[in-house]
Amino acid sequence: MKLKRLAETARPVIAFVLDGQPASALAGDTLLTAILANSDHVRRSEFDGGNRAGFCWMGACQDCWVTVEGAGRQRACTTYIAADMRIVRS
Amino acid sequence: MTDVAIVGAGPAGTRAAEVLVRAGLRPVVIDEAPDSGGRIYQRPPRGFTRTDKTLYGFEAAKARALHAAFDALRPHIEFRPETLVWNIRQNILFTSHAGDMGEVPFGHALLCTGATDRIVPLPGWTLPGVTSLGGSQIALKAQGCAIGHRVAFVGTGPLLWLVAYQYARAGATVAAVVDTTAFTTKLRAMPGLLRGGATFAKGFYYVGWLRAHGVPIIEGATPLAILGSEAVDGLRIRTSGSEQQIACDAVALGWGLKPETQLADLAGVPFAFNAAQRAFLPQQDASGATANPSIFLAGDGARIAGADVAELAGARGAWAIVAARGLAVDHGEVTRLDAALARHGAFRSALDAAFPFPARLAATMPDETILCRCESVTAGELRATARAGTTLPAAEVNRAKALSRIGMGRCQGRLCSPPAAEVLAAALACPLESVGRLRGQPPVKPIPIMPRSPGSAP
Lengths: 90, 458
Ligand code: FES
What we know:
The complex is a heterodimer of chains A (about 90) and B (about 450).
Chain A: E1 4-5, E2 13-18, E3 21-26, H1 31-38, E4 43-44, E5 51-52, E6 65-68, E7 72-75, E8 86-88
Parallel strand pairs in A: 2-8
Antiparallel strand pairs in A: 2-3, 4-5, 6-7, 6-8
Chain B: E1 2-7, H1 11-22, E2 28-30, H2 52-56, H3 60-73, E3 78-80, E4 83-89, E5 92-97, E6 100-111, E7 115-117, E8 130-132, H4 133-143, E9 145-146, E10 150-156, H5 158-169, E11 173-179, H6 183-188, H7 190-194, H8 198-212, E12 217-219, E13 222-227, E14 234-239, E15 242-246, E16 250-255, E17 257-259, H9 262-266, E18 271-274, E19 279-282, E20 295-297, H10 307-324, H11 331-354, H12 359-363, E21 370-372, E22 377-378, H13 379-386, H14 397-404, H15 417-428
Parallel strand pairs in B: 1-2, 1-6, 2-3, 6-20, 8-16, 10-11, 10-16, 11-12
Antiparallel strand pairs in B: 4-5, 5-6, 7-17, 13-14, 14-15, 18-19, 21-22
Helix pairs in contact in B: 1-3, 1-10, 4-5, 5-8, 10-11, 13-14, 13-15
Bound molecules: FE2/S2 (inorganic) cluster (FES).
FE2/S2 (inorganic) cluster binds near residues 55, 56, 63 and 77 of chain A.
């Protein structure tokens, strides 16, 4: 899944790190948007090994948790990206 | 001790706070989001520039009015944004905010907890590229993104047409709108729908606009599977006997909404089966009062009826609390609210009839369909718990949960409980209501655990 940005594209660019690789997002992106603008998944299911990319975008399904270095486990759809955040996917 | 706590700052919570402030109270208002508005009138993050008209369409004036009302209330209420209420017990709300745990003791609480999408799992629905219908709308409204480059919308209900229209208007490619409700079913509900006046006219406008712009519209279809191995590359559906494949890289799924009733459950509010919404719902009277004298309910969190009703119900529930606290009630206003709520009730019944939950589609999902996406439990594994020969076969959902782990995952059955109940009832050949409902358990959502450096405050 790659998101398609349709609007609000003039926001400041924010650099972050995804699994050790440099990546970029826009100010106001949630971690979910930031990750899916750069990559095709957010996590891997610990039960079936399949790639997941969230589902509800509203903090209900819990299928988008990632690790943010120094801040612990975070829900990607309800957490906003910040400069130099280091996100680690499971 | 807080006199009154409101959980949820959407349409119901905002109008409730307004009434309570008018009555001289200073409510605590708690919401998980950073700002007021709820899901329907969710405000975009700071720095976004689209106009209200672009974001909220026909509802722009309502969104503006609601946001303005909340902003004006700010000095008179105690607003706690980005705060999760994860349990409720003996007049205490248990909260979590940025990793900090808190307790809010209250005299009365109004739960305006809103709703989530009602989903029917399809084979392939856990693939990246598949979102809930509400999720696809949040992506566009709050993040300026489409969930893919060619998006198929599958489900039923007014939101299906609205979001497909919003996507097409924003410049996304809508691969198709696949409505599981047949046109004839909607036609039968037409007389009741006409009572909805403007609401109905808007729905009609979206469908007409999509047709006029060449978006493929398929009604009365059965979605069979979402295709792809690592990502979505299509959707297979059946229409009147023949199968057809739609090329797309994203799919949004939604069959109306279901109330977030977990807190009402934990507060001990009794539930009853509602045949129209095919679900157990918390019992309340017309004012929002429940069997727990401290707990009142309003908005979609109690019963799905939409944002306009939520505004009315929020105000009505707040007046019920004002009365319970022995303060002066504006009886003229209460009479007006009761009349308006009664008018909306008739339109709501017509909507339920026009866009029914596809119980059969859920009940007959293939065995290999992942029903619980939290723990990858399949429909076949759930059916096995109902089979004779199993020690103590599951005759109701909580037993089935213990046997199959269905509904035991991190989402607490938010997504899987309606379709799981349909699957289990069909497997047992019994009416839906006799399989019961999953009991709620705290925390209603996982609480983020923040690492703390030694010596920092707990
Ligand atoms: S996408 Fe569902 S909780 Fe984040």
